[in-house]
Amino acid sequence: MLILFEKDYTKAQLEHVMEKVKATGCEPHLVHGLFKVTINIIGDDTRLDPEIFKSYEGVEDVIAVSKPFPLVGREFKPEDTVVRTHNVTFGPNHFVVIAGPCAVESEEQTLRIARAVKKAGAQILRGGAFKPRSSPYAFQGMGVEGLKILDIARKETGMPVITELLDVRDLDDICNYADIIQIGTRNMSNFSLLKEVGKTRKPVMLKRGMLATIDEWLMAAEYIYHEGNTQVILCERGIRSFDSKYTRNIVDLSAIPVIKHLSHLPISVDPSHATGRRDAVGPMTLAALAAGANSVMIDVHDDAESALCDGAQAITPHLFEGIMAGIRNLSKALGKELT
């Protein structure tokens, strides 16, 4: 249930209604939207009488919520959420390009790629310091040393950094060295981890689980939002199918308009991990932009054949320049700003 307040409500009226909600055993979640101040009632609100709350001074309306993700749903917040980090904006009429190596391998490698993607027009640097791998014998990342290298690249290029969090024990280090926390596909349903990043005030990019429905994805985002962190970006990174012979996953582009309809959160697409092949990254990037995505995240490596992680999907800096040219042309046609 949502309680909408009149434009000229008073603080005393708001506090009165919140106390009434608490008295029912439910939890009031207050959100100051662009146009409305709203209380979302968390808990079993089926026994509450909307007419009683409508009668309180300062209340404009009471709306029933039909979705299991009330905080990240459009019913709760009709206007689009805007997430900002430094001078980069995720939101309506903006398109953000995130690029960099799948894994931080060395300071020299990371700086070379960071300079190249910055020159081509990327706004945010990606790089994995902690790598979730299917095999325990595969390269697992450089850990905190990798974070320090990303910090060096950030200071040199001025680009904000996004990197993946695998373990809550690394949260403080990632918050110190990164600007956006990435929750990967394997941790989308790690609810204790989602709660902890929800307690931070860092932007969080939540990747869709490889077997997750859209409802499950949005309910995972609800965990973060419920803890108070409203800076959430969704990321479609491909879902498993019966045929993995030619692509790693299916890029669910239909999820973009569906998410836009169901939720107010910005959405990004990772065409690199979704397809697993470099020749598909460019077409899927432009398709994501055309479908309404707010961002893409692209793996770039200057020596993909020797990459320690996912070399088959990494594109060269030269190919990335070509993709950026296509993004600029299409963004202009769609009226979107590259920021």
- Which sequence of SSEs, written as H and E, runs from N to C? EHEEHEEEEHEHEHEHEHEHEHHEHE
Number of E-type strands: 15
Under CATH, the topology of the largest domain is which? TIM Barrel
Global structural class: alpha/beta
The fraction of residues in strands falls at 15-25%
Structurally, the number of domains stands at 2
What is the oligomer described by this structure?
single chain
Order of strands across the widest beta sheet?
Answer: 7-8-9-10-11-12-13-14
Largest sheet: 8 strands, parallel, barrel
Low-confidence stretches: none
Q: What overall geometry do the principal axes of the alpha carbons give?
A: elongated
Provide the helix percentage: 25-40%
The Rg value, from CA coordinates, equals 21 Å
- The CATH first-level class of the largest domain comes to Alpha Beta
What's the CATH superfamily of the largest domain, by name? Aldolase class I
CATH architecture of the largest domain: Alpha-Beta Barrel
N-to-C terminal Cα separation, in Å?
Answer: 36 Å
Number of helices: 11
Mean pLDDT: 92
